[in-house]
Amino acid sequence: MNRNNIGNTTHGITYNQAKKAIQEMNLIENFMFDSSIEDKDDAQIVIGKILKSIYGKEFKNIRIECQKQLNGLETDCHGIRLDARITQNELDEYLDASIIDVEMENRAEDKKELPRRHRYYESLDDSKSLETSTPYGKLPNYVSITISSYDPFDANDMCYVATTVLTSHLHIPYDDGVMHLYFYCKGRPNFNEIIDAGLIKSKSHSKKLQEMLEYIVSGKKPATSDSDIDAVDNVVTKVKNKKEVTTKYMRWFDEIRHYKMDERNNIALKDIKFDRENGISAEVTRNRLREWGYDDMEIDELMSTVAEENKSVRI
Q: pLDDT by residue (tens digit) across 69-102?
């Protein structure tokens, strides 16, 4: 179910509707991804197999912190929620990082925000990682992995790698310990180019990664059975059949519905105020609100709210 359609829903969702929506979900959708990594053992399977498909090897000694909320430094600042934060205790030649953030991205309207959003994620995480008087060299290396259903940079490639560079002298290394990997599930496989450029330290594993990305975005498994994808699919199937996941989705749906309704009502209230301040007749306003899907009783309540606010201002 497309989350963007929730704003057009004025009623709640039944258990059967929620169960049907969950059965139709794939791992690319945040609700399903979040639900699949809530259990630590399940998270080890899902995240471990995704990392294996990217780097071409099994990783051991990783500690996964699922759904970790990092609050902003001030209460009125943004906080971030890491979908899966992996701490690698023993670094090796394949994974030059001790913190990895794995996310699913399924909202094309967020495309322009991705680079700056990751900048915020990284900076907030750094502020939590570095204690007072600790040398900056002790900051852990950081890799973000974003798996996307849409092309984040419109080059139609499957893999994009972003690092910080010394723009005026590209031949001089500028190592701030940060790398961002973006995988567009439907893009052109360009892994050999990425590996040849030394951007990912890995053996050739293009086919397995393509199959994993295809499974994540569509739920489609390869014709030839793959044990890693089967393991992830077993977790997803188990999660889809959990009653508590269905009820959690119903609560989530209701929260989003109320949020969307509040936003819609705020826009309507501003519209009513504008019309009153500019001498536009109430009937014109009513007709416009009817076109937006409001009935007369709802319009009366909105207009009454504006009238009460105006009365309190005059007092």
A: 443 333 333 434 454 566 655 445 545 556 788 8
Helix (H, G, I), strand (E, B) or coil at 105: strand
Determine the Cα–Cα distance for residues 245 and 33; give it in Å rounded to an integer: 12
CA atoms of 267 and 291, how far apart (whole Å): 14
CB contact set of 197 (below 8 Å; sequence gap of 6+): none
Cβ partners under 8 Å of residue 13, min gap 6: 21, 249, 250, 253, 254
Sheet of 178-184: strand order equals 62-70, 80-88, 99-105, 142-148, 178-184, 159-163
Nearest to 109 by CA among 11, 7, 191: 7
Find the Cα–Cα–Cα–Cα dihedral 232, 101, 260, 244, rounded to 10°: 40
Tokens standing for 156? 């139609």
Place of tokens 């940079």: 153
The C-alpha angle with vertex 67 and arms to 66 and 71, in degrees rounded to 5, equals 125
Q: So where are the chain's domains?
A: 37-241, 248-314
Give the span between the Cα atoms of 208 and 56, in whole angstroms.
9
Q: Are 66 and 43 in contact (CB under 8 A)?
A: yes
The neighbouring-strand residues paired with 294 are: none
- What three-state secondary structure class fits 160? strand
| pLDDT higher than threshold 70 for residue 130 | no
Say how many C-beta atoms besides its own lie within 10 A of residue 48's C-beta: 19
The conformation of residue 132, written as its DSSP 8-state character, comes to T
Residue 205 has pLDDT above 70, yes or no: no
